[in-house]
Amino acid sequence: MTLPRIVIERCQYLARCTKEPDAITRPFASEAMRCAHDSVGEWMREAGMDVRRDNIGNLRGRFEGAGETTLMLGSHLDSVRDAGKYDGPLGVIVAIAAVQRLHDAGKRLPFAIDVLAFADEEGLRFGSTYLGSRAVAGTFDPADLDRTDGDGITMRDAIRAFGGDPERIVDDRWQGGELLGYCEVHIEQGPVLEARNLAVGVVSAIAGQERHRITFTGEAAHAGTTPMDKRRDALVAASVFVQAVEDYAGREGLVATVGQLSVKPGAANVIPGEVTLSLDVRHADDALRLIATRRLLDIAAEIAKHRRMGLKTNQMSEEATVLCSQRLVSRLSQAVRDIGLPVVELASGAGHDAVAMSALTEVGMLFVRCKGGVSHNPAESVKTEDVAVAIDVLSRFLDLLAN
Ligand code: GLV
Ligand code: MN
Ligand code: MN
Description:
It contains eleven helices and 16 strands. The protein has helices spanning 3-14, 31-46, 89-104, 131-137, 155-162, 192-195, 234-248, 286-306, 326-338, 353-357, 384-402, and strands at 50-53, 59-63, 70-76, 112-118, 179-187, 200-206, 208-217, 221-222, 255-257, 261-264, 270-271, 274-283, 310-319, 322-323, 345-348, 363-368. The strands form three sheets. Strands 1, 2, 3, 4, 5, 6, 14, 15 and 16 form a nine-stranded mixed sheet that branches. The protein is globular. One manganese (II) ion is lined by residues 80, 87, 122, 376.
């Protein structure tokens, strides 16, 4: 079997590591993640790497080089709920494939390669983002250890159950000397490459984003006996807000999403007394994002006031826009040209571990075309030929850095 085909089959194989039958759902520090580590660790070792798991739960493979410096490659192994097969795993497995090529050729580069399979990019379990890459970058916030998941389990206990020491996450910080940068291969998750008929593209920047948790509190009451004009229905307030978010977003480059809604008490014959929802806001211009979020939170307050509701808002995360390093962008572009393809640079609307890694070192990313631009959906699909291009570009990129 060819290496690109192996990459595709491995991504498909990992689909069996899931918390939910008939769907891919692989949360941080879960049994499903342990299952993925078993396979990915094996593949790393086959490619000549030393493998370890750190305290936060990243799987780290190291391919020694002839010199003192290190290049980091990687992506994440956690997923959203009912995910596709490629968001995350593709970047890890393409990185392993590039190392496998070196190993098979008996080649050592002047630098070591660390392949990082990150523990939590999506934030599915704790509403966090980039837990794994933050630990490596040294920006993990110990206050996050007190966050709880949907079952009331603290992050501290989840890490312990997974085999890490939550009090020693500082030790996960990169301590191996000079870094040449971090490079991540990822599916595009958007329509640009397909529209331009290109297998890969070089990422110029990653748009900033923030997430909030918003709770409207009204009054639970009897659905049969409470007159319509006496109700304080929290779900109606939340629905008005969801519509307002859609109306407000859509202006130049701004995207905003309500993706989670929890309705209490949640019974057919009870007027909803409390609704908690998520708000995700993104823009490549941080100043515009901040203005937009302020306006959206004001709108929530206006709705709450008008409908005699309590309102609680809580910022869960915020990331500024990150520019990819000119040095790595230019090497990746050269690598694309060297294999005979045109270079297109594009910005990422999705967040990536490269964002957190930018606090530690220079970052670069290579996007791979995906079918219909579809992602965060089981229909995610990638062509073997495009994976072949990604491996070739990454291998050429390594050569360029070596010379
Ligand atoms: C990660 O996939 C994100 O951009 O939300
Ligand atoms: Mn994702
Ligand atoms: Mn991803």
